[in-house]
Amino acid sequence: MDTARRTVRGSPALLLLLLGTVRIDGYRPVVIVHGIFDGPKQFKTLSQFITEMHPGTEVSVIDLYDNLHSLRSLWTQVQDFRKALDAITLKAPDGVHLLCFSQGGLICRALLSLAPRHNVHAFVSLSSPLSGQYGDTDYLRWLFPSFIKNKVFRVCYSSVGQKVSVCDYWNDPHQRYRYLQSNTFLPMLNGERPHLLQKEWRENFLLIKKLVLIGGPDDGVITPWQSSHFGFYDIDENIVEMRNQEFYKSDRFGLKTLAARGDVSVCVRSGVKHVEWHSNRTVFTGCIERWLT
């Protein structure tokens, strides 16, 4: 017994291990979900950043709905991404980190809401339209060349439009009623459209330990860019910040609770274009790295 006591006193690291305050199994696995028109190949640089800074980390970029297939309805995609995530998390009893880019951030939002007893530790949302999208970007002109932003609702808020991923988060601030009635994805996730599973989804989402929101004013695609931080336009296209959104004030899906716990981190970076977020080392070191432990 005396020998054991001398060993512990002489080894602070061992003492910490005995107290359970140090991880002994390395870094948690990181699961990456890509954005629209993307696939695993676009995330080689980000994967390299992770393994360089945290050697031995298992990084998985889910290889589903790549490129044009990413236009499939989000509820369809979510079901298959959930199966892929479950297969990874089953092998990681200490949990995983979920790092999701652009449209992938919304897929991850849905995964975290639908999955009971999930073991996702940190959810890092990298330039995702979390409150929706409303803007005449190059992506929109490619998808709907005959429409400008204030006409797209005619397609998106229809049964046909709801089979296209972009329409699942198209949020026209001038067509609020149609958005709430016809969009079957984003209003349900954000608790703006009441449903029977809302309480359960909220409890599931709150299982995460950290929510990291990353975006910036020079993104050029996410419109408004504040949507990456749960901000959005009002009817006059003025920005309503996250804490003034009704879904935040009413804590519809747990965002206010997360913030009260001190578990929401907001990172703003200027000078980063949309397609650069996952290959920008400064973004990684300044906004992401610390959360992937």
Could you characterize what this model shows?
It is a single chain. The protein is of the alpha/beta class. Helix content is about 35%, strand content about 10%. It contains 13 helices and eight strands. A six-stranded parallel β-sheet has the order 2-1-3-4-5-8, sandwiched between helices. Strands 6-7 form a two-stranded antiparallel sheet.
Oligomerization category of the chains in this entry: single chain
Taking strands numbered 1, 2, ... along the chain, how are they ordered across the largest sheet? 2-1-3-4-5-8
CATH superfamily: Alpha/Beta hydrolase fold, catalytic domain
Gyration radius, in Å:
20 Å
Portion in beta strands: 5-15%
What is the second-level CATH architecture?
3-Layer(aba) Sandwich
What is this structure, in a nutshell?
The chain has helices at 2-9, 12-19, 44-53, 74-89, 103-114, 138-143, 153-156, 176-182, 186-189, 198-205, 246-249, 255-260, 281-288; strands spanning 30-33, 59-61, 96-101, 120-126, 210-215, 232-233, 239-240, 264-268.
Break the fold down into its secondary structure elements and pairings.
Layout: H1 2-9, H2 12-19, E1 30-33, H3 44-53, E2 59-61, H4 74-89, E3 96-101, H5 103-114, E4 120-126, H6 138-143, H7 153-156, H8 176-182, H9 186-189, H10 198-205, E5 210-215, E6 232-233, E7 239-240, H11 246-249, H12 255-260, E8 264-268, H13 281-288
Key phrases:
alpha/beta; 293 residues; two-stranded antiparallel ribbon; globular; 6-stranded parallel beta sheet
